[in-house]
Specification:
The complex is a heterodimer of chains A (112) and B (114). Helix content of chain A is 0%, strand content 40%. Chain A is built from no helices and ten strands. Chain A has strands spanning 4-5, 10-14, 19-21, 24-25, 34-38, 45-49, 60-64, 69-74, 83-88, 106-111. In chain A, the strands form three sheets. In chain A, strands 2-10-9-5-6 form a five-stranded mixed β-sheet, with no helix packed on it. In chain B, the strands form two sheets. In chain B, strands 2, 4, 5, 6, 9, 10 and 11 form a seven-stranded mixed β-sheet that branches. A four-stranded antiparallel β-sheet of chain B has the order 1-3-8-7, with no helix packed on it. The chains are: A mainly beta (112), B mainly beta (114). At the A-B interface, strand 6 of A face strand 4, strand 5 and strand 10 of B.
Chain lengths: 112, 114
């Protein structure tokens, strides 16, 4: 089964500082990976997906198949980036694509 | 386009009771997934339904069950409630395969078991 690791439960940075939220996973058969975000008192929503290669709200995520990592990065943190971030790597080879596994999440706090 | 709608939003139940939660997916979405969210465990996958069939199931006891109707609406049921079942239950819908498509979440149903 897919195993997802987001090693930091809480990441605190100052406004304007670079941000890197780490995500490692065990199965890398599919190129499709996601980052979801949950802002305070809002529903969980898609932040970005690897296959579209978009940069959303200044965030990017590079897939490193060798390290099985999909770290989320932003060069300059903004106060409104404070939220809970979840990494969602691909389904493993047994699941048929019908299950999305989430990491335990990293709470990003951007301080002034 | 209406988003994923979950009812009820909040409920309090007593240990031993059972509860049914409802989810209406985005129009046209045929896949519905359920997750349990707790501070300690994060988001844990419960099950996924597509065309009224359960396609995948997480590691939860048999007290947790679900179903999907022909209009893609879904319900999940928890029987013999335990204190540890207190959580936010999230429903998510997608066009087809959740791991290959964007999934859209509802606001969740907050369940408190006392």
């Amino acid at each position: 089964a897919q195993r997802v690791t987001q090693p930091e439960k809480l990441l605190s940075v100052f406004k304007g500082a670079p941000v890197e939220l780490k995500c490692n996973y065990s199965y890398s058969g599919s190129p499709e990976l996601f980052w979801y975000v949950q802002y305070s008192r809002q529903r969980l929503q898609l932040l970005l997906r690897h296959i579209s290669r978009e940069s959303i709200k200044g965030f990017t995520a590079d897939l490193n198949k060798g390290e099985t990592s999909f770290h989320l990065k932003k060069p300059f943190a903004q106060e409104e980036d404070s939220a809970m971030y979840y990494c969602a790597p691909p389904e493993d080879e047994t699941g048929g694509g019908n299950k999305l596994t989430f990491g335990t999440g990293t709470q990003l706090k951007v301080e002034l | 386009k209406a988003g994923v709608t979950q009812t009820p939003r909040y409920l309090i139940k007593t240990r031993g009771q059972q509860v049914t939660l409802s989810c209406s997916p985005i129009s046209g979405h045929r896949s519905v997934s359920w997750y349990q969210q707790t501070p300690g465990q994060g988001l844990q996958f419960l099950f996924e339904y597509f065309s009224e069939t359960q396609r995948n199931k997480g590691n939860f006891p048999g007290r947790f069950s679900g179903r999907q109707f022909s209009n893609s609406r879904s319900e999940m049921n928890v029987s013999t409630l335990e204190l540890g079942d207190s959580a936010l239950y999230l429903c998510a819908s997608s066009l087809e395969h959740p791991s290959g498509n964007t999934i859209y979440f509802g606001e969740g149903s907050w369940l408190t078991v006392v």
